[in-house]
Design goal:
Order of helices and strands: HHHHHHHHH
Helix content: over 70%
Structural class: mainly alpha
Number of helices: 9
């Protein structure tokens, strides 16, 4: 006696929704657990984040709070964001575990390295922003201020500013992953990517102008790594295609 196809589809949908709920709960629980020590040390986290600016400001200078609640809410906001970043590998693993059963074997083989590379490159972009970009940008802003102007940065505005920059550089460092993904899916050929280098160079400077503060220093600091990462993505895409071709040739040889 055959089962009703509609009932089978409904049962499959319910099982997928239940699994999705479990994955989301695990991801939320991971973020919640990580947020406990982050919130406990929220003031220390903000002090660490403020170091690049304070290092460029005059001696005994400090950040200010223009809101009564800002000294409490701003470090808490930072702690929550940091906890999400720390737990992100586990959160993405839960997403991968939910999606992976529906992928083909060759898709799984390439998807996992790309996912891991995307996570690592995002962290590298954030670290690059903190250790390289922030000192240069803050040095530029502090030393170009008029002589009769005293720089007093609000902690909430400072947090928003540095988070935008860190996430922008984190996203910019995903360029190699995007290039490899487009090539591996057959959307773009490597020959096309190499022929439009000049347009890409202009595009990365335009993107950097949109994402960074309106000064040439920060725009160049973002645009140059983005273009170098674009070239790196082409190199990795060539290696990927060469490996795929060698694998296909090996299979053909074994078949004959």
């Amino acid at each position: 006696m055959s089962s009703d196809p509609e009932s089978l589809r409904e049962g499959t949908l319910i099982s997928h929704l239940l699994e999705l709920r479990d994955r989301l709960m695990r991801a939320f629980l991971a973020v919640a657990l990580v947020s406990i020590p982050c919130i406990w040390k929220s003031n220390e986290l903000f002090e660490y984040l403020a170091k690049p600016l304070l290092a460029q400001m005059p001696k005994n200078a400090s950040l200010i709070a223009t809101s009564i609640t800002a000294p409490f809410t701003t470090p808490i906001k930072l702690a929550i964001i940091v906890s999400i970043l720390i737990a992100m590998p586990y959160v993405l693993y839960q997403a991968w575990a939910f999606v992976a059963p529906g992928l083909y074997r060759h898709e799984k083989r390439y998807a996992m390295p790309l996912l891991v590379s995307a996570i690592i490159l995002f962290y590298c972009g954030c670290a690059f922003a903190y250790w390289v970009v922030f000192p240069l940008i803050f040095n530029f802003f502090v030393h170009t201020a008029p002589a009769n102007v005293t720089l007093m940065a609000d902690i909430d505005m400072y947090l928003d500013f540095v988070l935008v920059l860190m996430f922008s550089f984190g996203a910019a460092f995903e360029v190699p992953v995007a290039v490899v993904l487009l090539v591996s899916l057959g959307v773009v050929k490597i020959e096309k990517l190499t022929s439009i280098r000049g347009y890409v160079l202009i595009a990365v400077f335009v993107i950097a102008a949109i994402l960074t503060p309106p000064d040439a220093v920060s725009q160049t600091i973002m645009a140059v790594p983005m273009y170098l990462l674009y070239e790196g993505g082409i190199i990795f895409a060539r290696i990927l295609l060469r490996g795929r071709k060698d694998g296909e040739d090996k299979k053909e040889g074994e078949a004959t």
